[in-house]
Amino acid sequence: MMALTPLVYWAQRHEEIYLRVELTDAQNIDAHVHENILHFQALGHGARGQNLYEFSMEFLLPVESQVAFKSTQRQVNITVMKKQRGWWERLTKQERKPLFLAPDFDRWLDESDAEMEIREKERRNKWKASRHNEKGFINLTTGFLFTYNLVQFLGFSWIFVNMTIRLLKFGEDSVYDTFHTISGVMFFCQILAAVEVLNAAFGLVRTGVIPTLIQVLGRNFVLFIIFGCLEEMQNKPVVFFVFYLWSAIEIFRNVMRLCFRYPFYMLGCFNTEWKILTWLRYSLWMPLYPLGALAEAVAIVQSVPIFDKSSLFSIPLPKAIGTSLRFAYFLRAYLVLMFLGLFVNFRHLYKQRQKRFRTKKKAH
Fold first, then answer.
1. Model-level pTM?
2. Active-site residues: which are they?
3. Which long-range contacts (CB under 8 A, 24 or more apart) does 58-63 make?
4. What is the pLDDT of residues 163-182, one digit of tens each?
């Protein structure tokens, strides 16, 4: 069977040569580059019917030896990579264009248009990469915050449920035994609460650093200094009320976070906002936070006489003065600062509430 020459259409980019061979249902395709000459042979239906078709052409400039081709029902598409990036004035080494070769106007671009295509492709790739990185970061951040809030929710829920069951089962006796049965989990949760400050500082959550720092330091001061260092305080009823209010506040807060910040993980059905939950989220803290602060203040007031009699944390002064600076003085000053901190936190939360409901009214 005598081989015939198929019709071949070509186009280029700065790094590739595209060839389109007009053969339908091509079989036994052989396309390779040897000494910068492309050799092609295939059996298919071309301009002269079903036959064996072949051609050879020497490229103007060096190309890679690897040839990529793909056969469809209508044609064979060939891609050859240039060894050096650039724009060729013609395809073949011979100045006279072969009779079977013609421009592929479906893919034809001038050099300037090809440059624009490259820039557009690079822009799209950068955008996709940035979106991918951003999405990966957001997913990682969301996963971290979700895990943190879930752990805190479970920890404080254990405290609240355990204290409630013990109160119902043992009555008043459980109130005096709160520190010894609950303090281990409370220590863990309050140490972990330091992450709240880091989250705000690094912008992972839209929360002020100062209000968060005031709350975390204030609670840890009461827990570790007032309760942890004074055995006389550990059997007092105030421990029960402080722990109970803290756990109630944190359960409420973490439930609201899990509901509103991470619907994908826990409440994927919340495509629309639940008005009652929104109202609770921005209103329930109003009685809980002052009650929690009041319980902390009672604990500090009850600890003042104990520190007055003790030299714990006292600072010795020079012998000429003949006394020491007792920690109880600091506690009295701390009470004032604590209520100032409560005012700052209360004001911050109240502004958030006003902003939220003002926005909702405007939307309506």
1. 0.56
2. 289, 296
3. 58/92, 58/93, 58/94, 59/17, 59/91, 59/92, 59/93, 60/88, 60/89, 60/90, 60/91, 60/92, 60/93, 61/86, 61/88, 62/36, 63/17, 63/33, 63/36, 63/38
4. 999 999 999 889 999 999 99
